[in-house]
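Collaborator request, handled under Task 6.
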Amino acid sequence: MLLEPATIRSRLRTPLAIGAVFVLALSLRLLSAPKAMEGGIRLLSPDCYGHLRRSAYVAENFPKVPFFDPYLNHPDGAVFIWPPFFDLVSGGAARLLFGPDPGLSGTLATIAAVPPFLGAFHPVLLFLAVLPLLGRRRAILAALLYALTPVAVIWSCFGHADHHVAEVLSLLAFLAAFVRAVLASGRRALFWAVVAAALLAGTLMTWQGAVFVVALAVPSALFMPPERAAVFGVAAAGFAGAGTWLALGGETVPFSFISFGWFQPLVVAGAAAALCLWSAWKGPPGTPRVLSLAAAALLVTILAPNVERLFGAVLRGGAFLAASQVGSGGDDFADGGYLSYPSDFLATVAEAKPLLDTPIETSAKRALSELNPGLLFLPVALVLWALPGVRQRAPRIRGRWVLVIFGLALLLMAFGQRRNVYYLAIFTAIALAEATARLEVRVPRFGRVAGALCAAGLVVGVGWGSLRRVSTYSEVPGRDLFWTIEALQKLDPPGRVPWKEPRPRPGEVPGVFCPWSMGHFVTALAQRPAAADPNTYGWRRQCRLYSSPTDEEARQILMSTKVRYLVTMNLRPILPEYARAAGRDESLRPEEMFAIRIHESESRTPVPFLELALDSRTAYRLRNGRLVPAYRIWRVTGPGAP
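Structure tokens returned to the collaborator:
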């Protein structure tokens, strides 16, 4: 039977609309490509270079993903804290495109291009998640507005090769399946429950902090029939345990939510046990109740020996969020990695600050620009989605509580830490779509096309400054930083390639002491181990060195870390924070600290144990008019130097 043209157009309308949104999203995320590739590809942030080196290893040794890393925390080595998914995708793609030996250049080209393609799928998955709950119109609008939302573009643009784009992808995939598991019936419901469970485990394989998704999935699962919730919980625990076992391959890692490891699947097992007990209490009598009790008993048996460790990890790991005292305590370090971050570390990290910070007007404008005006309407939208679910029992209406639970939690999380804005963008887009759809109904002349264009224009207009940051690639470090570190590699080749087997033993290759934010640049581009890095290893050690008031203390730190080179730069803006973390006297001035005394010295041998090896090509001017190189690399010399 031939379909009428009108019917064909009707059936194609939605796929064509979502296809257009996908193309729009991809185009926006590629805006940074010309600047990123100008004179050679530069990735956007230090963390990107940590993923670059790990992905290069995956490309050479696919599908193995390393966890213990001899290039971190020199000279002892340390655990790479991130789960394997993003590096497995990037490294696997590099191997597929460039063969089994893509090297750094092939991996670099691949990992720079992966985020835009992953990010372009975000609005498609968002459409699939919203469609069964709010209908086609709101789902298409939400996908369109999310595709335009600056923070979503920033975190998935060309060159932003960090795992955050995969975090959002995995959350959206989980929500799309989970919503169907809540709403479906019969065998389809069980199918979607198992798929959602697998995708929940997938969020943990993307970011270790995705235990928050587990915590939110438990109350959301209460909107399923009890026996279905039990199936979801048991399947999630099984997938999480199996995925962790396959990924780690017997490697020893810390038991902490700071690092990927066995903490995460045990949290899932605890959540699954709770859902099984609820199913046994509320579910139908007979076989389902017996099976739920049996599953709960098995999960409790697995959990019992680990209860103390679980509570200890939660309390210890959570302490860094609440701690206000700085300059006290040692590194909470075991099994090759952190059990919790140093309490004074987050004071120096912009992503860890509250969404609304001082000055409040500046931070509020930034939040509205990076997210979208849906941020203002989101609290109202949460109420609008919640109230009908209280009064009505229809699955679709009650299922909107999934949006309420996740949206409210992520709103609070983003206000607590700015890093969560790329999750919150999902729900500000849905909220703005809700507002637009309601306005279209109440204003008869305000048609659907006009409504979509106005909402899209509002997002772009408010976020224009943030979108320009993507096209200008303005947040990338200066080219001189890359030149300086690459020049060190050429000046003194380390003789070992970090991504090839056999890897060196910890401390075998002489390392580099650098500011923590530069650590991944050093390990990837200079191909030498770093004594401090963005995974936070060596944080307090570098605070003590750079703020040291005496040369002898600095010499002892350098010799104990067995480094061949020291990197200095203009650390004046951050030195007071370093000094507080090191417990220095507050009266100590930057000019008295080791970092400034060495970096601004006019001598090539400012102290007996350092000799100038390399200066950068750019410089800054002191108040007296003298030019000082932006970056300086010193050779560590004397007795005990490698």
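The cover message to the collaborator said: "The beta strands are 68-69, 78-79, 333-334, 337-338, 511-513, 563-569, 610-615, 619-621, 627-629, 631-636. The CA atoms of residues 439 and 446 lie 8 Å apart. Please let us know whether this matches your experimental observations."
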